[in-house]
Amino acid sequence: MPFAPHQVVIGTIELLMLLIGAWVLARAVAIPELRVSLFGQNRIRHWEITGPEAVLLALGIFLCGTIGQGAAMRLLGPVIAGMPDRTGLEVVAYGLGFHAVALLGWPLFGAARRFAFSDYGARPPPGPAPHRLGLRSLIWNGATTLLLALPVLAISSYGWNTLLRALGLPDAPQDLIAIFGAVKSPAVLIALLVVACIVAPINEELLFRGVIFRYCRQRFGRPIALVASGALFGLMHGNWAGFVPLGLLGAALALAYEHSGDIRVPILAHALFNLNTTVVILSGLPSA
């Protein structure tokens, strides 16, 4: 079946991104100086937090998100039940309910800490100030992270799905992919993009990289932190086909956070990944 002109353009761009990412990754592996520059530095600031506090923060974020999603289902579910693009609207409502309300876990945790420790926040924490990149460096690091991750994700997705089929296990993509492809209303599509490319990356990166990876990195070291945060990130999406690729994406985002010391880098890279996936879906090209 011949491809439409827009599919040819998007497919060509995707192929170029894969080739550039593979070339940069190969150079990073082959050249010691570049390898150390990309993967040998930890710029994440030390975090004065105990294990129980980190668990409490993660649970608080998840609990707030669950309450927000439940409220959205209760209040908005009946309203959108008979509307066109119902499934897409449900994803928007429940996604905003979960990810936006989950962010309240951070100020609530801070309030609980101030209640428990009267001097909390009165003095700046020890050590250098948090590392924050300029706008150019932020965009460069986020885009580079996406390029480096794409060839790894493409190979791992192909190998993992081949293994799943050989074992007779389900290899269907996430339902969300089908939902994006079926949406007809431009307004609903824009709302889905806001959830997928802005709200969800912010909440997920603050949780998986900003809490889980950051704490495990300084408490147990890099290998355990990468496995723990990546595996939990893959599991959270609740899909067999995406478990390994998304777990590796989580590891790549963690390395980007470690390299830059700026949580905005994995947030941007995550947003770009979701946007790239959405463009492929909407173009009609196969996404895996």
List the helices and strands and how they pair.
Elements lengths: L4 H26 L1 H8 L11 H30 L5 H17 L2 H12 L18 H33 L7 H8 L3 H35 L1 H15 L3 H21 L3 H20 L5
Outline the structure in words:
The radius of gyration is 20 Å and the shape is globular. The chain has 11 helices and no strands. With 288 residues, the chain is mostly helical. It has helices at 5-30, 32-39, 51-80, 86-102, 105-116, 135-167, 175-182, 186-220, 222-236, 240-260, 264-283. It folds into 2 domains: 1-32 and 142-199 and 208-288, no CATH class; 49-120. It starts with a helix and ends in a 5-residue tail after the last helix. Helix 1 packs across helix 6. 34% of the residues are buried.
> What is the residue-averaged pLDDT?
88
Radius of gyration: 20 Å
The domain tally reads: 2
**Distance between termini?**
18 Å
The number of strands is 0
Helix content: over 70%
Based on secondary structure, the structural category is mainly alpha
Describe this protein with a few key phrases:
0% strand, 288 residues, globular, 78% helix, single chain
Summarize the structure.
This protein is mainly α and 288 residues long.
